[in-house]
Amino acid sequence: MRHQHHPASLAAFISRFQLQLPQAVQTSHNVRPAAVLIPIVCRPEPTLLLTRRADSLRKHAGQVAFPGGKTDAEDSSAIITALREAQEEVAIPPQAVQVLGKLAPLDSNTGFQVTPVVGLIPPDIQFHANADEVAEVFEMPLHEALMLSRYYPLDIHRGGHSHRLYLSWYRSQFVWGLTAAIIRRLAQQVSI
């Protein structure tokens, strides 16, 4: 696969991501596999591509998310799932994605074990939101996304269990839950 030329800040991100071993996987209580793509757009100022889910969806309606979804029986890996879903939701051609690697899976509150896949995307791709699933596509500067101070912890106590959520904002977008946890995990992995 041809490698695009990356500016210094993106090169530093890539080397840090690839140098760091993924964090130890916590024991997962969820068995249903799913995957999301963390698309990094290779602009002079690199960005994270995020979506806001359609308000009509049954689960996580209106929430900020990465393109992704549950693993189909014919998907041979989390990477295949993430690339397929990114193509379905925002029209990113799988062959245009340079996969850097994966983060350790995280549990979602809807019963999925979600594997985040980090991929680089050329800046000239035309994103098209699939209106059935995605209300909006937007980009957030990578250096802002990776600032750990952006993520505010909120502890929720339910049924004798304590559960920590992370909350963040970017312009008018409210980023929380699994998406905030994934970005924060990525930020932790590259903050050497």
Low-confidence blocks of residues: none
Radius of gyration over alpha carbons?
Answer: 16 Å
Find the CATH topology. Nucleoside Triphosphate Pyrophosphohydrolase
Number of domains: 1
Structural class: alpha+beta
Amino- and carboxy-terminal Cα gap: 28 Å
What overall geometry do the principal axes of the alpha carbons give?
Answer: globular
What's the quaternary structure here?
single chain
Helix content: 10-25%
Instruction: Just name the CATH architecture.
Output: Alpha-Beta Complex
Number of strands: 11
CATH class: Alpha Beta
What does the largest sheet look like?
8 strands, mixed
Q: Helical region count?
A: 4
N-to-C series of helices and strands: HEEEEHEEEEHEEEH
The portion of residues forming beta strands comes to 35-45%
Cofactor: Mg(2+); Mn(2+)
InterPro entries: CoAse, NUDIX_hydrolase-like_dom_sf, NUDIX_hydrolase_dom, NUDIX_hydrolase_NudL_CS
Organism: Chania multitudinisentens RB-25
Family: Belongs to the Nudix hydrolase family. PCD1 subfamily.
Could you describe the 3D structure shown?
Pfam families: NUDIX. Its cofactor is Mg(2+); Mn(2+). This protein is of the alpha+beta class and about 190 residues long. It has a single domain, classed as Nucleoside Triphosphate Pyrophosphohydrolase (Alpha-Beta Complex). It has 4 helices and 11 strands. It has helices spanning about 10-20, 80-90, 140-145, 175-190, and strands at about 30-40, 45-55, 65, 70, 100, 105, 110-120, 135-140, 150-160, 160-170, 175. Strands 1, 2, 3, 4, 5, 6, 7 and 8 form an 8-stranded mixed β-sheet that branches. The chain is globular, with a radius of gyration of 16 Å. The model has no long low-confidence stretch (mean pLDDT about 85).
